[in-house]
Design brief:
The structure is a homodimer. By secondary structure, the first copy, chain A, is α/β, with parallel strands linked by helices. Chain A has a 10-stranded mixed sheet with strand order 3-2-4-7-1-8-12-11-9-10, with helices on both faces. In chain A, strands 5-6 form a two-stranded antiparallel sheet. The longest helix of chain A is centred in the C-terminal third of the chain and has 17 residues. The first copy, chain A, is globular. Chains A and B meet through helix 2, helix 3, strand 3, helix 4 and helix 5 of A and helix 2, helix 3, strand 3, helix 4 and helix 5 of B.
């Protein structure tokens, strides 16, 4: 098919973290208005809003988040929809927006995500997150995500050898990157020993192997590239690839726990559309809900051969500077934070910052092609996008 | 733009009602497999799943419903997304599916909706439904939907004269239609007096002015019309119009409480695309969360002049047989039931049944063009689709 090219022309995000004084409305207002201002366009050009949110209904009694965001941002009668696919909710909003703009239906669309989590107690947050799996077959019998990903880590050790040090090194690297990102929730460097000594969550995971509970919001303005050139003076970052795939929701049904079929299929679609290979990617925001997840994903995205993800981390191949592909220069879910429904959009925020050359002290040198990778649940949903400055 | 034509080639739904022995998985399996069987296609042709659900996260601790449905239906690695826009969640799934098939990205897509509500107590269900409004500004201070729509009814009386009898007549008519629908939750006819004598919910609404709390699921198979002709022997019902619009989420912000801007704008988009006028519509499934809502919507859809909706009901113009336009031949949300995330898809089920001429005792005579109208929250989201048998 002859799709229209789609680009990102504006980005905005809040500081990520524990933000007790800020409501969902406050977070949406800040990030949404920042993205529109960054694009330098009049609000009246925005024709639709796609809004990623995972679980404000359980955590904050708030559904209908597309409509809420449109009201907060003064967008009146435009069509809105909330997309949800667990931790991939934000990227799903972008995926649907890309399809709608590609098709010619809309020229300019706002895409956002927001989540408010830190005001609830640990049990409530854990129950809310567990709804990303199958309640009947998993959560109701005590299967939570740290336990599933601990099982995945142990299985990975069995199939490919012990990767404990590499997992800890993922945490160390992401915290080092996060320390350079003013929006990151965690801004201190940590050591391997600190990861090992962390509170045990589910063996082999300690608290430092786990992503964070975070309040935050991120928005981007997306436009048909041909239209973008007429309405903005901002650098135009083209979405050259888009992919979306799924897998069984329950861990028990999956063909493999150490190779994520959804990542492989979504990446294949995105690479094919973009006409690039994994070796062309300069930087990638990769879903690191747990340290083992990042390692597996960097293999399934084709950056490293299967089983070689751990070695890649330990030999500096994922480093922000001097590596083969800079993984999570923002700090990732691990250090920047994981405001679930906003995460996929915040990944785009980072990639656009890097491709514009505006990432300041955390700038990846010679960043030409960037990728975002976002999974939901036990890799039951995966969305991949690839970006490059428009010609 | 030169969009591809999109059609419905298969439909399935469960019986609607209080179904204590059936889980979300059970409901999805029945309706989803029925739709695929009705299309007579092999599952392997389905390339994506769009899933409407309003609030299983709060009511049943279940998110990630697209992925869940794909697993239940054995659809493996296809991309899935849940759409949510309060009571319009199901129609939003169809809207996104239509855009994706129009664009050429997918040829065959499954679209579903499901909701499980009756297992929770009244307070929990009310809190869950209230998340369709603004929690901070409405629900948290006690504004629930019956109170908002009672206010709308009173305002309507002030602007256009007392419509109490017409509201009761809406309930009577929808119950009479529901009595002919084997899938309907309520299958008994009622009288005007019974409506007046019902338990007061919020003046002037009695319990008989309110839609139901319902468990249920509905699915449809959607395909590019050019592809549909090659893969199914089923009658092909083309989606000739699609419209989607929004409005402020909070009642307080709206320009009018008695004219729904989202309905007007969504209908305009759908009529324009379909190249038909309101007078061309033979039957319409119209969002009747409360009896007053149906009256206002039949005006805003252009079936009757503003303020003349009550008279239209009282003079038989909305009757299934012998009227101007048959409104809610299924029984509507009022009698068929309102399994929130499934409602928009169940509306399509009914329109397709009618246009195929398969509606049995409730068949609308000479049904050629049908319309579905679905709103979310205080008419803050609206989706309209128009259907006709493909040439």
């Amino acid at each position: 098919m002859n799709y229209r090219s789609v680009s990102v022309i504006g980005i905005g995000e809040t500081k990520m973290g524990r933000l007790p004084d800020r409501s969902l409305r406050d977070l949406i207002a800040e990030a949404g208005n920042a993205a529109i201002a960054d694009a330098g366009i009049d609000k009246s050009l925005i024709q639709a809003l796609y809004m990623g949110n995972f679980n404000a209904q359980y955590l904050a009694f708030q559904g209908h988040m597309g409509s809420l965001a449109a009201e907060v941002l003064g967008l009146r009668n435009i069509p809105t929809v909330r997309t949800e696919g667990a931790c991939a909710s934000g990227s799903l909003a972008l995926r649907q927006a890309v399809i709608a703009v590609q098709s010619g239906l809309y020229d300019v669309v706002l895409v956002g995500g927001a989540e408010k989590m830190t005001h609830r107690d640990t049990e409530t947050v854990t129950t809310g997150i567990a709804s990303a799996g199958d309640f009947e077959l998993e959560a109701s019998v005590g299967v939570t995500f740290p336990s599933v990903f601990a099982m995945i880590a142990n299985r990975y050790f069995y199939e490919y050898g012990n990767a404990r040090e590499a997992m800890a090194a993922v945490a160390v690297q992401n915290h080092a990157n996060g320390a350079l990102n003013p929006d990151a929730q965690m801004q201190k460097e940590i050591t391997l020993q600190k990861v090992y000594d962390g509170v045990k969550i589910s063996d082999p995971l300690t608290v430092f192997d786990c992503s964070l509970v975070t309040d935050g919001s991120a928005f981007i303005v997306v436009a048909a590239t041909e239209v973008a050139k007429k309405i903005t003076k901002q650098k135009i970052i083209e979405i050259i690839g888009s992919g979306h795939a799924g897998d069984y929701i329950t861990a028990a049904q999956k063909e493999s726990l150490t190779t994520f079929a959804a990542t492989i299929n979504a990446a294949k679609e995105a690479y094919t559309m973009a006409k690039v290979t994994p070796q062309d990617i300069d930087l990638a925001e990769v879903h690191d809900c747990f340290t083992i997840t990042q390692i597996i994903n960097t293999e399934d995205l084709g950056f490293f051969p299967k089983g070689k993800g751990p070695e890649a981390v330990l030999t500096g191949k994922t480093a922000r500077v001097g590596g083969v592909v800079a993984i999570n220069p923002s700090g990732g879910l691990k250090a920047k934070g994981h405001p679930i429904g906003a995460t996929g959009i915040s990944q785009v925020f980072e990639v656009v910052k890097q491709l514009r050359g505006e990432a300041g002290p955390r700038q990846v040198p010679n960043a030409k092609i960037g990728l975002t990778h976002n999974i939901g649940g036990t890799a039951a949903t995966c969305v991949v996008h690839i970006f490059r400055e428009a010609k």
